[in-house]
Specification:
The chain contains 7 helices and 6 strands; from the N terminus they run H-E-H-E-H-H-E-E-H-E-H-E-H. It is an alpha/beta fold.
Length: 213
Amino acid sequence: MFYLKKKKRYFIDIIKFLKKERLNKIIYPEQKNIFNAFFLTNFNDIKVVILGQDPYFSKNQAHGLSFSVPKRFTIPPSLKNIYKELNSDFKKKYSFNHGCLENWAHQGVFLLNTILTVESGKPKSHSNIGWTIFTDKVISTINLYRNSIIFLLWGNDAQKKSYLINEDKHYILKTSHPSPLSAYRGFFGCKHFSLTNKILVENKKKPIDWFFI
């Protein structure tokens, strides 16, 4: 797990803000799940980073992993498109029966959102409370202390983070966001999953079993 610098002023301010907001508003994910991505993928085990935006803002969907939902909930549209591209990429017709990506996280796929909390029904409502400072530092730390990490940057918001990544040390794969509004602008047909595995094998690392969920 990352060492989280909880004594930083901006981080203390985030925690105070969330504590106050939870008194009168519904905030996702639950407090215990905010840092799930950090708990499930050890820093030294990271092979791939999939960078999302902010958490799902509907009831009980968000659980601290980008694009993922708990097993008992309906698969969201963006994740459906991710699964569709997976099947197309590997020429399969696999039927995904849930949207929990914890097994990706256990294999070294760091599922990070750039913003870690959101108010119910209000996308990007916590975009200015300090999370971007924190997640920029996380990406910078991966960039500095790890080598040959594959960053999957889907959509403009994720691609804005590319300046934090040294392409002489790491790999960046870019395309449109998998949401229904933009998946046809490049996400479908991007083959990022097979490309990722090809790069991992070239670097003598175990490929990801994307269908193990």
